[in-house]
Amino acid sequence: MDTPSSPPPNTPSDAAERRELRAAMTSPVGDFEPFENEDEILGDQTVRDEAEEEDGEELFGDNMENDYRPMPELDHYDPALLDDEDDFSEMSQGDRFAAESEMRRRDRAAGIHRDDRDLGFDQSDDEDDVGPRAKRRAGEKAAVGEVEDTEMVESIENLEDTKGHSTKEWVSMLGPRTEIAIAFILFETLWMKGRLHLS
User: Which spans does this entry mark as compositional bias, Pro residues (predicted)?
Assistant: First the structure.
């Protein structure tokens, strides 16, 4: 029995059959209305945006101080919303400390952590802290292995590839600097254990 080594050549009828098969396999196109022109529906957006911008309230400018002028109709609290009826006694520092300690103990038991030491600071303030203390803490974390995933540096596959930077710039970057430090520590370790022989 002869088995052909290659498929038989395509005939025009095969191509027509394949087209019919592909047409049957695809989903039919429904009788949908054609898309409408978006500009006709929305109108000219740029003109509308400029008009809205002009209608907005000016927050900065010559009349900015007017926000702080006295307005007697607005400068009082609604008595229905105030809780002035109850007489609250003054609390001593010891009583306050005892109450706060009790609340902290209750929160710890419930798994709630409240720390208001940084209430006055934005997190972006800490990100700008690159002084000696921040560097020392980062170094201590790295030495102990407590560096978080967000702080991890991507491994450099090829230190020789400076990616267009000068050598001085390249070795001062965090990733290459870390790779060089790791390679040096590995070199020292192997040398001290006698496993590294230079010839």
Answer: 1-11
